[in-house]
Amino acid sequence: MSEPAVHAFGLRRRFSHPSGDVEVLRGLELSVAAGELVTVSGRSGSGKSALLALLGGFDSPDSGRVLLAGEPIDGAPPWHTCAVLPQALGLAHELTVAENVALPLRLRPGTDSTEERVTGLLADLGVGQLADRYPSEVSFGQQQRVALARAVSGRPKVLLTDEPTAHLDAGSSPAVLRLLRRCADEGAAVIVATHDDAVHAIADRRVRLSDGVLSAA
Ligand SMILES: Nc1ncnc2c1ncn2[C@@H]1O[C@H](COP(=O)(O)OP(=O)(O)O)[C@@H](O)[C@H]1O
Ligand SMILES: [Mg+2]
């Protein structure tokens, strides 16, 4: 059998605060297969974003390991291996919307035509008319869709998204859900931290983060 796309085990992560230490993750385990879409729920502050930071290699666990396709991660992997839609978006503000979305394709050209891929994704997400604007010239909800388009443009094997519908109205979230589902159907392992029942509804599997570990939701 092939390795899961994502396998994390024994993950522990403690943060120090003036008021005392908090152990946010306490021996957490998670396996996600290629083509599987898993949603992670949990109350605010339960550690969902902290978990995604560990899975994406932006942070290191105090103990435990993260394997992507069986390989231990060492820092943040290349974007075509694992791409992230962080809660804080992280768009490059000196680049236009289209240039942001094209970045992964320019870093590692594949079989996609950059222009077709970028134009198609922005249109699918209802922000096609914004291609030549700068992030500061579009709303936060629109920036969130641009950051999602950037995360998926290079067809990453693992896609980590943090509250991808948090800033969207009811009209624009179905397109985001369709794109997340399509990424999984095309073979990515997709992990979505979310409070949104509409996202849980498209999941293959739902887990809940509570007391530092995951359980079936
Ligand atoms: N870099 C950090 N430094 C200190 N504390 C952190 C850091 N990241 C997260 N935390 C703490 O870990 C807990 C979980 O945070 P977070 O992962 O953002 O929760 P969630 O995404 O589920 O709302 C919170 O108590 C938060 O204050
Ligand atoms: Mg969070």
TrEMBL record:
SMART domains: AAA
MF GO annotations: ATP binding; ATP hydrolysis activity; transmembrane transporter activity
InterPro entries found in the cross-reference section: AAA+_ATPase, ABC_transporter-like_ATP-bd, ABC_transporter-like_CS, ABC_transpr_LolD-like, P-loop_NTPase
Swiss-Prot/TrEMBL keywords: ATP-binding, Nucleotide-binding
CC terms in the record's Gene Ontology section: plasma membrane
Domain called ABC transporter: residue spans: 6-217
Protein name: ATP-binding cassette domain-containing protein
Species per Swiss-Prot/TrEMBL record: Amycolatopsis alkalitolerans
